[in-house]
Design goal:
Blueprint (H helix, E strand, L loop, with lengths): L3 H14 L3 E5 L29 H4 L2 H6 L1 H11 L9 H11 L3 E6 L5 H4 L5 E3 L2 E8 L5 E3 H10 L14 E5 L8 H12 L3 E5 L19 E5 L12 E3 L3 H10 L1
Parallel strand pairs: 1-2, 1-7, 2-3, 7-8, 8-9
Antiparallel strand pairs: 4-5, 4-6
The protein binds nicotinamide-adenine-dinucleotide and zinc ion.
Length: 252
């Protein structure tokens, strides 16, 4: 295996020479912020005590409609981290945008941490827990309104402050489609990039993972602790922690 320092040197050269970087992220970039991913050994899928269904079933549209109470029990416990703060990796990529190197972040995450770190051009393929809408009248609710409402109802399901309808997070559940505008923006950015840096994603959730195929630029870089199905397509694969990788990048 190539020495990690050599790989980081290669990455540094790639970033120095790049003019249009797109950063494509998954749950792994937010693990250091205290938000567990899904598929690591200590990720959500390997934790016990769930409400009689797999997380994939629970965060599906059917489950939301039929078992709303159980959906929210799982959702508030395992998917909402209101106090999480961006980490060094989020800030590093936000800074590369300020420097004019990064043209966009395309993320599968729903935690809003890229924006909190200062990234402006962010395509959230799977939505964001900070936004919530009434399923009846469409009224917008903040996360704290939703949490407060859930705490005030007997079944723990948040209700609209205007009409009493059930409020749904603006998060793309399994069986639901991605938003057209977000998909178009993400694909356009990837198509026009000279460098694609993929961070902290197992690349098994579709259609998001398939977006990598739109990249026609010079350098595809994958930074992920575990191997992914796309490793053989990449110019550079760093199977390491994103935080130590960024520390090495900025420290050298
Ligand atoms: N923070 C979040 O918003 C969050 C958290 C969990 C799941 N999700 C959602 O779940 C789906 C899961 O797909 P996914 O591919 O994003 O996540 P995933 O759990 O399938 O994969 C995460 C990957 O990150 C890697 N990883 C973990 N910690 C890392 C670190 N410190 N440095 C480098 N790599 C690290 C793991 O090896 C793993 O392959 C997504 O659709 C996403 O919307 C989001
Ligand atoms: Zn309403």
């Amino acid at each position: 295996m190539e020495d990690i320092k050599v790989k980081v040197e290669k990455l540094k050269k790639i970033i120095n020479g790049a003019r249009r970087i797109v950063v494509f992220t998954g749950a792994g970039i937010s693990v250091a912020s205290g938000i567990p991913d899904f598929r690591s050994a200590d990720g959500l899928y390997n934790q016990n005590g769930l409400v009689g269904a797999t997380p994939e079933e629970i965060i599906s549209h059917t489950f939301f409609v039929n078992r709303t109470k159980d959906f929210y029990k799982f959702y508030f416990k395992s998917m909402v981290y209101e106090t999480a703060q961006p980490n060094l990796a989020h800030s590093y990529f936000a800074n590369l945008e300020k420097l004019g190197k990064v043209i966009a972040v395309v993320t599968q995450n729903i935690d809003g941490l890229h924006q909190k770190a200062g990234s402006k051009n962010v395509y959230e393929l799977h939505g964001n827990v900070l936004r919530n809408n009434c399923t009846n009248c469409g009224r917008f609710h903040t996360l704290s309104e939703v949490k407060q409402s859930a705490g005030n109802t007997l079944d723990g399901v948040p209700r609209c402050k205007i009409c009493g309808g059930i409020v749904k997070p603006d998060v793309v559940l399994y069986e639901e489609s991605l938003l057209d505008d977000t998909v178009d923006g993400a694909i356009n950015a990837i198509q026009s990039a000279d460098t694609l840096i993929v961070v902290g994603t197992s690349l098994v959730v579709y259609p998001a993972a398939g977006f990598l195929r739109f990249f026609k630029g010079d350098n595809l870089v994958l930074i992920n602790k575990d191997k992914t199905p796309y490793d053989s397509y990449a110019n550079l694969v760093i199977n390491d922690d994103i935080i130590t990788t960024v520390q090495d990048l900025i420290g050298n």
